[in-house]
User: Fold Sec-independent protein translocase protein TatA from Blastopirellula marina DSM 3645.
Amino acid sequence: MMTVPISVPVIFGFLGGLGMQEMMIVAVLAVLLFGKNLPGVARSLGRSYSDFKKGLSDIQSEFHSATKEVEDTVNDRGFSSKSSSSSSYDDYDDYAEATAPKFEPPPAEPHKSENG
Assistant:
């Protein structure tokens, strides 16, 4: 007989790295805390989660539309939103070679020997 490992449904994906034992403990605690009200609490949590996701989606779509507006405005004025590959740092490099002569130390004087 082949055994199939028990997998956690995708619904519980928000619980992250909780194993089966931890989820059982959470379930027992939920039953002890909420008892008869557990279906109502679960419904309320589900509704709150749904509202949160909807609000997050609205914020993301508003952000994307605002950035799209800015990109369109920039493109309409003739600026490119992407950096062009034809220009390079050397085109804007204003570094010039030094014009002052290099310092050359004077030649060393020969040492006179004590015996000589």
